[in-house]
Amino acid sequence: MNRKTEDQNRAAHTRRDFLKTSTVAAVGTTVAAHMNIIPGAYAQGSDEIRVGVIGVGGRGTGAIKDVLMAAPGVRIVAIGDVFKDRIDEAMAKFKSFAEDPEIKKLGNTVAVTPERSFVGFDAYEKVINASDVNYIILATPPGFRPQHIKAVVASGKTLFTEKPVAVDGPGIRMVLEAYEQSKTKGMSIAAGTQRRHDVGYNEAIKRIQGGAIGDIVATRAYWNQGGLWKKDRQKEWSDLEWQLRNWLYFTWLSGDHIVEQHVHNVDVSNWAMNAHPAKATGMGGRQVRTSPEYGHIFDHFAIDYEYPNGVHMMSMCRQIEGTTGNVSEALVGTKGNYVSQSNRQLITGANEWRYNDKPKSAYVLEHTDLISSVRAGKPINELKNVAETTLTAIMGRMSAYTGKTVTWEQALNSQEVLMPAKLDWSSNMPVPAVAVPGKTELV
Ligand SMILES: NC(=O)c1ccc[n+]([C@@H]2O[C@H](COP(=O)([O-])OP(=O)(O)OC[C@H]3O[C@@H](n4cnc5c(N)ncnc54)[C@H](O)[C@@H]3O)[C@@H](O)[C@H]2O)c1
Predict the structure, then answer these.
(1) What is the CATH architecture assignment of 200-358+388-412?
(2) Could you tell me if the CB of 139 is within 6 A of ligand 1?
(3) In the chain, which segments carry CATH 3.40.50.720?
């Protein structure tokens, strides 16, 4: 299953509730973007969105197109990536973006020159500090995210951060500290947990929090699918380059697939519960993807999470070819049940409701919402939510790796820094050992 397609299929086309409270100008802007009308309906000049993107791989270039389709008055002005060939690939796509009829209608443009495309580990600083950039998109592998988020918050610029926002407890602490600073600065921040910008999900959660299924007594979150991409090692690649190009398979870069991918489903449970779990007891392993090309991550996890009020979430995720796919979230209530799967929302029981509307991408809506918040002067800030859901997934991974029950405090206060102390293009970088429950220590 292609996860981008799956997620895009889940999106829907009307607008989020909070926009109803925005100013008339902001609503006009958003309606324009969503309904493809009045592309010039924003205050020209001072509120132009000038985007800098860090990490221009699959999602980074996807996000460039999404933000160009999100509202009028958007210009892409700088990009950065650790690899020059990724910059070249991104530049090659820009022509087709410029020719997209919807983007043309909005009057949006890509104005990235070779001088405004930065290569290397310090590319993020060059993009963030570019004087014309006022809107940053972070789309590198998540291991770098805490450092990049910290730098964006220091700059005070508007931030769109892909999920997850860290891979370990120390990273989450850095992000939560940045969140506190961003609140003081009144920054607008949105995260790539796009279900929170999807109209169907928003309507479902509003109904559930309004009592449609009664009290929630159990939740379920699944992301079971086949495998994802990998890149064959080239002889000229150092250990570091091989790991970076295959970042999914290294926990210091991805957090493992429970953190990198399953975070989406766990987020829906946390959102509905308006809480995060207090502890996790989980298991998992590496049964099929056992060869060295798959680094050291697991290929399946099953976690029993417990919320502070005693409600349990059954979470499972698997990336194994030939197995039954299931990407869904479900809630069990005292008056009914809820399930969301394949772009369908369904509440059964006393207050039956279903939503099968034709989707407009939530990948676009997340930018529409963020831009509207900036233009209305009503900041939204999703950094705490996404940090807490990321830590939920990290807590599950820690439990599965060690075979121990792990509490929220243990995960949050963990001293385990997964990022190697030095990133060196030439020296050896051994692959960490595959975790063994009962032997791998909880740090
Ligand atoms: N919201 C979603 O549904 C969704 C979907 C796909 C991916 N993602 C997230 O987007 C992020 C990127 O995933 P992707 O699929 O685009 O991966 P990708 O490998 O296609 O792209 C990552 C890019 O980041 C670059 N990069 C790596 N380290 C860097 C650094 N230190 N500084 C600058 N650039 C660096 C890589 O060279 C690459 O071009 C991940 O966090 C992933 O979880 C989210």
Answers:
(1) 2-Layer Sandwich (3.30)
(2) yes
(3) 3-196+365-383
CATH 3.10.20.30 given to domain 3-196+365-383: no
d(CA 228, ligand 1 centre) in Å: 14
Contact 42, 72 (CB under 8 A): yes
pLDDT at 342: 80
194 CB within 6 A, ligand 1: yes
Q: How far is the CA of 152 from the centre of ligand 1 (A)?
A: 17
Q: Is 388 in the pocket of ligand 1 (CB under 6 A)?
A: no
Q: Is the CB of 146 under 6 A from ligand 1?
A: no
- Put simply, whether the predicted model's pTM sits higher than 0.85 gets the answer yes
- Say how far apart CA 398 and CA 296 lie, in whole Å: 14
Atom of ligand 1 lying closest to residue 86 CA = 39
Q: How far apart are CA 111 and CA 61, in angstroms?
A: 14
Predicted local confidence at residue 37, as pLDDT: 28
| Average pLDDT of the segment spanning 149-161 | 98
Q: How does strand 158-161 pair with strand 189-191?
A: parallel
Numbered ranges of CATH 3.30.360.10 in the chain: 200-358+388-412
163 pocket-lining for ligand 1 (C-beta < 6 Å): yes
At 195-235, the pLDDT tens digits run 999 999 999 999 999 999 999 999 999 999 999 999 999 99
pLDDT tens for residues 88-123?
999 999 999 999 999 999 999 999 999 999 999 999
Output the residue whose Cα is nearest ligand 1's atom 43.
260
57 Cα–ligand 1 center, Å: 6
Whether ligand 1 lies within 6 angstroms of the CB of 140 is answered as: yes
Report pLDDT digits (tens) over 49-94. 999 999 999 999 999 999 999 999 999 999 999 999 999 999 999 9
Q: For a pocket test of ligand 1, which of 82, 228, 249 has the largest count of ligand atoms closer than 8 A to its C-beta?
A: 82
